[in-house]
């Protein structure tokens, strides 16, 4: 942490970037750090390749998120949050990051880190937003209500609203500190967990396509571009669906396969705790955590589904 704190302390103009298809933690940690740095008198701007899910549009400072790159030389430092591989930030920013003299990383995903001048990467944390809060506290930075709302959203969403196995006592302490600093708990919940009819329609399609195997321990389903179009939904509407599959009683591992507009297949995997799905993702060039991981693969839906199903069955068979 100290190395990252030092490199940030020395910078005046900071560029913040997170992963493509950003989630609540990607956006919450980036915007949270933006507010914290501005309160320190620094210049800070957030880049996101998007698309931004509608439930996060309320986050304070969202109007300052841009998908336009700055000029080289317009910033002293880039901070990569909630990911540690430059390619996770999208093709445009990946090329840009490679040209920057100073990159710091704050992340909680598994996998080797071979990028950046200072990296604080620790899968022991539930959320990057938790790490940013602890950094602010260690450095004595003022946590404004705007920063607190962004960081709370990141901690809340990456712990599944304080339900997942990553919900440690420290997570509750961080959440309490953020609430104390002015995080708007009930307004955040209303925005993030609003009922969105098109998502429920998608979920209906996912349940229609559900295939249970391995004595009900493996749940697989898929969504085609055609399904998305029929419902009027986009990729950002699918974040919660794979969680729903994992919560079917008896299911140990779930995976959702979805066609991407570029003709690839995005795989989202979830485990209840016994199988390490990040192993499967990392082997194939993706990443994540033990209980939640993903990868995007070239190939057709049926082929990718077969390959991943075989790997997940092997993981389940190792248990029995
Ligand atoms: P999701 O299935 O919700 O997209 O992602 C689950 C977890 O795996 C998240 O922590 C996410 O950052 C990570 N993840 C998903 N897809 C990829 C990928 O293509 N590459 C890497 N490195 N991580 C991914
Ligand atoms: Mn994330
Ligand atoms: Mn995260």
Comma- or semicolon-separated keywords:
320 residues; alpha/beta; inorganic pyrophosphatase (n-terminal core); 2 domains; globular; binds manganese (II) ion
What does the model show?
This is Phosphoesterase RecJ-like protein. This protein is an alpha/beta fold and 320 residues long. It has two domains: 191 residues, inorganic pyrophosphatase (n-terminal core), CATH 3.90.1640.10; 123 residues, Roll (Diaminopimelate Epimerase, Chain A, domain 1). 41% of the residues lie in helices and 18% in strands. It has a six-stranded parallel sheet with strand order 3-2-1-4-5-6. β9 and β10 form a beta hairpin. α4 packs antiparallel against α5, α5 runs antiparallel to α6 and α5 crosses α7. The radius of gyration is 19 Å and the shape is globular. The model has no long low-confidence stretch (mean pLDDT 96).
